[in-house]
């Protein structure tokens, strides 16, 4: 029975994964000034450029996943994005107490998202 819904499940997975990144990218546009300051404080070279490249990647790759176009390539791009963002923003190793717990939760969420994107990469195009 479940096998008969496999295509619909894959479409739902792409919609959920991709639209979350499109939304996050659009939200980051609104918060660009704050995020640029945060990235500058973390020592990211050319923080503004890096931020806008990340936003573009989130929106474009997320949209491609929703549309089912170049899904594996878009998933690979978002995996790269997650690795960089995790190192930049979920650096739990530099924190203590509640802040450390919050960063660990972000780290775990990004690991789980990476697993989801790897499963999309294994799907037929």
SSE topology string: HHHHH
Report the average pLDDT across residues: 88
Structural class: mainly alpha
Q: Quote the beta fraction.
A: under 5%
Largest sheet: none
**Tally of DSSP β-strands:** 0
Which overall shape is indicated by the principal axes computed on the Cα atoms? Answer: globular
Estimated radius of gyration: 16 Å
> Helicity, in percent?
over 70%
TL;DR of this structure?
The protein is an all-alpha fold.
SSE layout and pairing:
Blueprint: H1 6-30, H2 32-41, H3 47-67, H4 71-89, H5 97-121
Write a structural description.
This protein has 125 residues and is mostly helical. It is built from five helices and no strands. Helix 3 (47-67) runs antiparallel to helix 4. The two termini are 23 Å apart.
Key terms:
125 residues; mainly alpha; 5 helices; 80% helix; 0% strand
């Amino acid at each position: 029975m479940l096998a008969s819904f496999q295509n619909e499940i894959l479409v739902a997975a792409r919609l959920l994964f991709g639209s979350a990144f499109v939304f996050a990218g659009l939200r980051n546009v609104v918060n660009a000034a704050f995020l640029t300051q945060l990235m500058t404080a973390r020592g990211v070279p050319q923080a503004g450029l890096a931020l806008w490249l990340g936003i573009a990647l989130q929106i474009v790759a997320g949209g491609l996943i929703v549309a089912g176009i170049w899904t594996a390539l878009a998933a690979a791009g978002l995996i790269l994005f997650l690795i960089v963002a995790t190192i930049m923003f979920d650096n739990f190793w530099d924190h203590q107490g509640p802040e450390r717990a919050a960063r660990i939760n972000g780290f775990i969420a990004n690991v789980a998202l990476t697993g989801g994107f790897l499963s999309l990469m294994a799907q037929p195009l």
